[in-house]
Amino acid sequence: MNSTIKMVVFDMAGTVVDEDNVVYKTLQKAINEAGYNFTLDEVLAQGAGKEKLQAIKSILNVYAENDDEELANSIFANFMIQLKDAYAVLNVLPQNNATELFAALKERKILTVFNTGYNRVIAQSLVDKLGWKKGVEFDDLVTATDVPKNRPNPDMILFAMQQFGITNGNEVVKVGDSIIDIEEGKNAGCVYSIGITTGAHTFEQLQSAKPDYIIDNLLDLLPVLDDHMSK
């Protein structure tokens, strides 16, 4: 008999939120203003899903063999200023079928939790722009600044589990649009770590992390959950 699924942890941007990759486009701009010429695909490949200072360090290290801490901090400071301006005018939309999925999970008495490589201020601004409210569309939000270690470490998922007294990863599913989301779910012992093709990484990139499933639409999650719960 399989365990009951009590919680689904969703990444935000690219998974349940459509913000047109504005964060990674802004990240690309801030890094390239420091004298580089990285493509958006390169930025996404190395930076997607990570806490954003760590994303900058990874991009510089992999593509430029540069591990200058001071440079990374300078780029990050520039990025945060530009991102605030970008978000002021950004039109944020829910990913297709997001709110329908949240309602379906509520019917099944499954918790909906968001987690993200963004800090608390950015993540909350996304939620606020969408008009989503804790206790209505979702049950909790965990951000990169709420825990000691960020993805692929499992801290954010484990923190979310603690909030609701869940002690077994077999009762939790992780869904995200990047390789690091899948790694995070595996490291947290989630019963399923699921990739979705609506965001940062392609099917092939997601496949390289060996997820349990790859879906193309949020509603594709429901048959996976229902099949598990019926066994």
From TrEMBL:
Gene Ontology process terms (BP): DNA repair
Gene Ontology CC terms: cytosol
Superkingdom per UniProt: Bacteria
Record keywords, A-Z: Hydrolase
GO molecular function: phosphoglycolate phosphatase activity
Protein name (record): Phosphonatase-like hydrolase
Source organism of the structure: Mucilaginibacter lappiensis
Species lineage: Bacteria, Pseudomonadati, Bacteroidota, Sphingobacteriia, Sphingobacteriales
